[in-house]
Design a protein that fits this description.
Largest sheet: none
Strand content: under 5%
Distance between the termini: 49 Å
InterPro entries: J_dom_sf
Protein name: J domain-containing protein
Organism: Magallana gigas (Pacific oyster)
Oligomer: single chain
Number of helices: 5
Keywords: Coiled coil
Radius of gyration: 18 Å
Helix content: over 70%
Order of helices and strands: HHHHH
């Protein structure tokens, strides 16, 4: 009987997670449609190098936590950062914008979607630097 109960519970949990993900994806699609201008800005900035992209993200979409700031002198245009230091800055930026750390009740679902998009691009850049 224990195995049957465990299987039923596992199936219920998977169904619940799938339903929640489907609901969030529908909400997310609607939010993305409303953020067309911001998404185009992120895509355009994503075409530039990592340092320019970081400057853009922190300038246009500053992290909600005031303690999270762009490090390593990157605020200055024309300032160049070494490869290893840039990797660490990208890692910290992923933490600053990670959607799991977003309080949707406080900052809203729009910020969560923006954080997801920014984090995707930051992670992709970090993975290419490995």
């Amino acid at each position: 009987w224990f195995k049957d109960c465990a299987e039923i519970l596992e199936r219920y949990q998977k169904e619940t997670v799938a339903a929640e993900e489907e609901k969030w994806n529908k909400e997310r699609e609607e939010i993305v449609k409303g953020l067309e201008k911001e998404m185009k800005g992120i895509e355009k900035a994503d075409e530039k190098d990592s340092q320019e992209f970081l400057r853009y993200v922190y300038r246009v979409f500053p992290p909600k936590n005031k303690e999270h700031k762009l490090e390593g002198g990157l605020k200055k245009k024309g300032f160049h950062v070494e490869h290893d230091k840039l990797k660490k800055i990208l890692q910290k930026a992923v933490v600053h914008y990670h959607p799991d750390k977003v309080d949707t009740e406080k900052h809203g679902k729009v910020w969560k979607v923006l954080s997801e998009e920014i984090t995707k691009r930051l992670t992709r850049r970090y993975e290419r630097m490995k």
